[in-house]
Amino acid sequence: MNKIIHINDPILIEYNSSVDKESAKKMIAFKYFSNDICLLDKYLKDKDVIDNSSIAHIAFEPKSQLEFSF
């Protein structure tokens, strides 16, 4: 019974729906954890949330800039 699933956890919903994970962490830490990011990291680690923001940046290569000659 160690793994209790919280279906409507607002912290996880807000974190998972965010695009910019770092700024979302700062905002959630401010709202729910008295601006303590370490507590938020521990909470997310206990919930087995994987921070895949670094994976998303590696998957996409930057496109070259289009140049128009007038």
Brief overview:
The chain contains four helices and no strands. The protein is mainly alpha-helical. It has one domain.
Helix content: 40-55%
Q: Give the averaged pLDDT, no decimals.
A: 80
| Multimerization status | single chain
The unreliable regions are none
* The number of domains: 1
Q: Please give the alpha-carbon distance between the first and last residues.
A: 68 Å
> How many DSSP-defined strands?
0
Secondary-structure element string: HHHH
**Number of helical regions:** 4
Describe the structure.
This protein is an all-alpha fold and 70 residues long. The chain has one domain. It is built from four helices and no strands. Helix 1 packs antiparallel against helix 2 (21-32) and helix 2 (21-32) packs across helix 3 (37-46). The protein starts with 9 loop residues before the first helix and ends in an 11-residue tail after the last helix. 4% of the residues are buried.
